[in-house]
Amino acid sequence: MTPDEKRALGLRLRAERDERGLTQREVAKLIRDALAGPQIPSIDTLIEYVKRWERGRSGIGVRYRRAYARAFGTTEQQLFALTPSGDDVQRREFLSLSAAAAGLAVAPPSLTDQQGRRVGAGLVDKLRRRTARLRRLDEILGGTDTYPVYASELSATRALVERGGYSEATGRGLLGVMAEQAQQAGWAALDSGQMAGANALFRESMTAASEAGEPTLIGNALALMAYHRVSTGRSGTTEADASCRVVDDETPAAVRALLYERAAWAHAVAGSTHTSQVEQALDKAREALAGGADDTPDWARWVDETELQIMTGRCWSQLRRPDRAVPALEWALARYDDAHARDKALYLTWLSEALLDSGEVTESARILIRSIDLGSDVASARPRARVTEVAERLRPHASIPAVAETIERATMTSSV
After folding, report:
1. Distance CA 129, CA 13 (A)
2. Residue 360: partners with Cβ closer than 8 Å, 6 or more residues away
3. What would you measure as the largest C-alpha separation in the chain, in angstroms?
4. Domains located in the chain, CATH noted
5. Alpha-carbon separation of residue 229 from 200, 223, 224, 270 (angstroms)
6. Which listed residue, of 5, 125, 381, 401, carries a Cα 20 to 30 Å from 277's Cα?
7. Pair 347, 336: CB distance under 8 Å
8. Which ranges in 55-120 belong to alpha helices (H)?
9. Tell me: the pLDDT tens digits for 189-238?
10. Residue pair 399/405 in contact by the 8 Å Cβ criterion
């Protein structure tokens, strides 16, 4: 199995276990009961196997596949989506099946399933629900792990759009789902450092959203394109400002807040001459959230006051205004669960940098260590890159023992 296939299968196995309400120990016991023959491993050994399989760290032998399927009360074909090797089409189907299983027990409809039948609105709703469930993976995993999942889902929907039969309304619905999936895959690509791929996916999303007539998704595609430009050292203010012009009073509050806060970030990265634009965008984001909850699309449901304070702190940290950055980041990070390790590790780097700008060098080093510890097992390029940046800013203070230790840890992290 390729690394991508192992990761996709690991996500499937974890989802199947969660769906049954089982712990890893309980799965290990069920596998042990299902195993036949001599040399059956201990429960503790099987627990370690289950952990490795769910993390996509190793393949699963024939003996354990059979026992796994029995433990879950299903067939090997259903659980592992076995396909012959060497066939690229079947390999893509394998990844698509594995990815979908992380959100639903059933696989996405293949082209062969749809031959002779028209795609109906029910399928669009089903795809939209699955896309929402798979989006939850981004809360706990990095882009390196999630990208194969999101890319395979997008590939399946793209195939339906290109070859399926459907009404005009259903076609618009499929394009809307495709736009969402392209944005999610693009975000995972960006998070894993695949910048060229991310750019192509964000542009594909823009095209699909435009053809679907979905202004909120058009706005988000523009905002993501701006974020991509900023992440690659270019100005993203044109795209960010364009995203904000798409919204109006009918746009859900969380979407408006999201677009405005990303515009604030683009202007913050542009430098101190854009301070007034940063202030205005953050104010509009706050005004949007103050309007209360409404019909928020799933892809914007995570935008709340804590998220806005995170972005506020990031903007002021970027603009070297620690007096405004530190209070916002400390308030938000105190409410941010460590379970969201990638994002919290990333946000801690801006707090570390703001503390350094305020002259609190030792505290800055301590916070950066927290970021390193939290993000050490996350498959994401962004926290590592930020840790390296902040550690370089700490280097002039390397005579301080705590700083020297932090720089050493950062160097080790960047080499992993």
Report:
1. 20
2. none
3. 73
4. 1-83 (1.10.260.40), 307-416 (1.25.40.10)
5. 12, 10, 9, 11
6. 381
7. yes
8. 62-72, 76-80, 88-101, 111-114
9. 999 999 999 999 999 999 999 999 999 999 999 999 999 999 999 999 99
10. no
Is 281 in contact with 267 (CB distance < 8 Å)?
Answer: yes
> Is the distance from CB of 134 to CB of 149 less than 8 angstroms?
yes
On the question of pLDDT at 104 being above 60, the answer is no
In the structure encoding, which two tokens stand for residue 86, read together? 């060497």
pTM: 0.72
- How many Å apart are CA 287 and CA 147, to the nearest integer? 34
Contact of 401 with 368, CB cutoff 8 Å: no
270, 276, 247: which is closest to 260 by C-alpha?
247
User: What is the C-alpha to C-alpha distance for residues 56 and 409, in angstroms, rounded to an integer?
Assistant: 26
Question: Does residue 260 contact residue 288 with C-beta atoms inside 8 Å?
Answer: yes
What pLDDT sits at residue 117?
53
Q: Give the total residue count for the chain.
A: 416
Residue 273's CB is within 10 A of a number of other CB atoms, namely 8
CB 143 within 8 A of CB 190: yes
Q: Which two tokens stand for residue 262?
A: 């990303």
